[in-house]
Amino acid sequence: MPELPEVETTRRGIEPFVVGQRIDGVTVRDARLRWPVRADLAAFLAGRPVQAVERRAKYLLLRLDDDDRILIHLGMSGSLRLDDPSNPPRKHDHVEWRLDNGRALRLHDPRRFGAVLTDRVDAPHERLEKLGPEPLGPTFDGAYLATRFAGRRVVVKQAIMNAAIVVGVGNIYASEALFLAGIHPMTPAGRLDRDECHTLAAAIRQVLAAAIEQGGTTLRDFLAPSGNPGYFRQTLNVYERTDQPCRRCGTAVERTVLGQRSTWFCPACQPARD
Ligand code: ZN
After folding, report:
1. Which is nearest to 242 in space by CA: 232, 256, 222, 230?
2. Best CATH choice for the domain 142-265 from the list 3.40.630.10, 3.40.50.11030, 1.10.8.50, 1.10.580.10
3. Which of 71, 194, 225, 229 is least buried, going by the fewest C-beta atoms within 10 A?
4. 2 C-alpha to center of ligand 1: Å?
5. What rounded mean pLDDT belongs to the chain?
6. What is the pTM of this model?
7. In this structure, which topology does domain 4-129 adopt according to CATH?
């Protein structure tokens, strides 16, 4: 599933080819994505310029003139690719934007959990309204986490995966950040002291930034004639490493289930609280 680093990598990959271009045409081959694509999308976008490609949480925002925006979500299996429009679309290339530089931006989504929506800068889509801060943005830090965690009994792993607290911390990155911070995933959020909140915020930023940096090496794949952009897998310390030795201390990594999601941790580096 595309996580925040893959979405940011996608943003950086398509940005140079999309910004400043006019939309010459739009083809919706299957409008039945997670929510139906608006029936007048092609007419709504015809001839309009793309002024910027931004990201909020896991939504890509293509900014148009008059403060309109296109929102693209990659869902469970989506990817975007720049193609020659004369190449026949692949199966599951559901939406295509043709640009005046002669390229086509194609949304490929076999499972159709992705989305193509529209909104306005001054009237953000309701999906964006209740989101917490960006983990790599200026307002996310230990002081912010301490405020949000105060008095809360929810376990810290679930707290940092809650998009109302901070966006884009998926299962992999939550597990890895808690390992780096030396915090047991089942610790009640309200029991972290201020120093631990600072350490955790820094660890979240570190794992996401590292993943984005590694993704940069795949950017050329957005123009590759075959296949999807090659997403990447950074060296993981605990995620999916049940019973393997901790890379720091050699203790066997353990797996537990929290909120129906598997969670991995090192019982020595991340001791449980009494
Ligand atoms: Zn360890």
Report:
1. 256
2. 1.10.8.50
3. 225
4. 28
5. 92
6. 0.91
7. N-terminal domain of MutM-like DNA repair proteins (3.20.190)
